Amino acid sequence: MRQHQTILILDFGSQYTQLIARRIREQAVYCEVHPYSVGLDKIRAMGPAGIVLSGGPMSVYEEGAPLISPELFGLGVPILGICYGAQLTAHLLGGKVDSATRREYGRAQVAVIEGVGALAGMAAGDSLAVWMSHGDHVDAIPPGFVHTASSDNCPFAGFADPARRIHCVQFHPEVVHTPRGAEILGNFLFRVCGLAGDWSMASFVDEAIARIRAQVGPEGRVICGLSGGVDSSVAAAILHKAIGDRLTCIFVDNGLLRRGERDQVDAVFRDHFKVDLRVIDATDRFLNALAGVTDPERKRKIIGLEFINVFDAEAKTIANARFLAQGTLYPDVIESVSVRGGPSHVIKSHHNVGGLPERMNLALVEPLRELFKDEVRALGAELGLPRHMLMRQPFPGPGLAVRCLGDLRKERLDVLRAADAIIEEEIRSAGLYESIWQSFGVLLPVRSVGVMGDARTYEETLAVRAVHSRDGMTADWVPLPHDLLGRISSRVINEVRGINRVVYDITSKPPGTIEWE
Ligand code: XMP
Q1: Gap between the Cα atoms of 500 and 442, Å rounded
Q2: For residue 251, which of 288, 280, 273 has the smallest C-alpha distance?
Q3: What domains lie within the chain, and their CATH numbers?
Q4: Regarding beta strands 158-161 and 146-150, do their DSSP bridges make them parallel or antiparallel, or are they unpaired?
């Protein structure tokens, strides 16, 4: 099935495993992440052109440590061991791993001893800035290996068996704090594995279209829920290219959208792509169901349920639909490895349409399930979606409901929509929109006294929130320039009736969450 040369990344539970995958794909090489326990038969069947052993939190000599069969090293496939992956290689091939006298975490300097393989192009004596994160280190390298790099705290920072094409580094080439990391990964990919770099969005489009056509068949119809976000938009665009008018898109206006969102979806999909788009105005239905509800979890549950009801009712009017499209991305597909176990708590019940396919008896089509977010954007650009849509900041499924604290009346939502549009406009004109993960307004049911002209006001409060994040799991508040905050504040108070005070949220996640509800 797979037409590209593939690198297999075996995951031993490192927080950086996905980063390895992204760094490899950035070099136009296709790769997949699988748990370390995937098994030799499956690995043989995949036929990888190279294997990367990731880092991980455990010690190779600890009970229950994640191990692999030493036969892996006899497959004749080039191997790159990173951190735990390097220690594991040493451990399994007759070297020695021990606990380091000093844990090493952070920046370090590594001296090159022999510039071979992954370190090709580097001269003996060169000093490399690298990122280290380890408690153990290799004390003795396996027989037949050469010593390629060392640091003060880690004598065997690099070692390799060039004849068997096995290369190991104790440091992390995948993180930006290792400035020559991309070169080191590139050396492995192109010099050691001899890859061509054949993974491009243009070639992906043709393959994805062929796969969609094969799955859906010559007659099948597909339904796709459009949210206005990047993932569902790109999924719809590629499906449309693959099956044309056998795709029907459903866009539910729940009255909780940002300003202009519905018009934009209409303009792009109906007018430009000529997609069979059904826009359902369900504002009254949602707002009636939400009337008087202020509890955050109840809001979320009601919105999720109403969405499914509305979507289901519309989908039933589409004759012969057997497939439902979903914009699932690769990070959701990767089976996460938790070598130490660990509880995961539901902090907020997220809005998703997970229950839909079973209820509607539809098969899933997931054209983006191999892609990372940045690749989805590149694919969208390839398909002609406007940049404005592709670079839009993430927006939660329950929409403005989780940013409008208290009662969800239409008037209050309109106030928030107007204020939020000003924030977006100002952040965009300051040139910051695309570098910030999310920036938005939150309407608080807190009234305070103000004075405008000569008159007393008694109105609600707008909190401005802007965060930097990589994946939404953790976030830092953004120190927006004071003059920008000033412009947002004065424009909101002057232009939006109903708000007379603006405050700035300086809470990171944790301990806060990004959305207020
Ligand atoms: P929190 O508020 O949990 O948000 O820190 C983390 C990220 O998730 C987004 N978010 C949602 N996305 N459905 C979504 O698709 C939801 O129900 C939902 N709730 C929060 C939020 O905007 C942030 O990017």
Answers
A1: 14
A2: 280
A3: 6-192 (3.40.50.880), 201-390 (3.40.50.620), 408-504 (3.30.300.10)
A4: antiparallel
Q: Which residues of 481-490 are buried (b: 16+ CB within 10 A; e: fewer)?
A: eeebbebbbe
For a substitution probing ligand 1, which of 393, 505, 515 has the most ligand atoms within 8 Å of its CB? 515
Cα–Cα distance between 166 and 160 in angstroms, integer? 6
Pick the catalytic residue from 4, 31, 34, 83. Answer: 83
pLDDT for the residue 353: 59
**CB within 8 Å of 134: residues ≥ 6 apart:** 55, 83, 84, 87, 100, 103, 104, 105, 154, 170
DSSP 115-165: --GGGTT--TT-EEEEEEEEEEEEEEPPTT-EEEEE-SS-S-SEEEEGGGT
83 among known catalytic residues: yes
Structure tokens at 444: 């608080």
Q: What is the mean pLDDT of the chain?
A: 94
Give the residue, by CA position, lying nearest to ligand 1 atom 12.
396
Helix (H) or strand (E) holding 7: strand 6-11
Query: Looking at ligand 1, which atom is closest to the CA of residue 438?
Result: 24
Instruction: Catalytic residue, from 172, 193, 370, 459: name it.
Output: 172
Ligand 1 neighbour 397 (Cβ under 6 A): yes
Task: Decide if 300 contacts 348 (C-beta within 8 A).
Answer: yes
In the numeric block, which tokens belong to residue 254?
A: 């729940």
Query: Using one digit for the tens of pLDDT, what is the confidence trace for 295-315?
Result: 999 999 999 999 999 999 999
174 is catalytic: yes
Selecting among 174, 261, 370, 424, the annotated active-site residue is 174
Under 8 Å CB-to-CB from 234, ≥6 apart: which residues?
327, 368, 376, 377, 379, 380, 383, 385, 390
- Tens digit of each residue's pLDDT (9 = 90 or more) over 23-58: 999 999 999 999 999 999 999 999 999 999 999 999
Across residues 238-256, what is the average pLDDT? Answer: 98
Task: Say how many Å lie between the CA of residue 350 and the centre of ligand 1.
Answer: 7
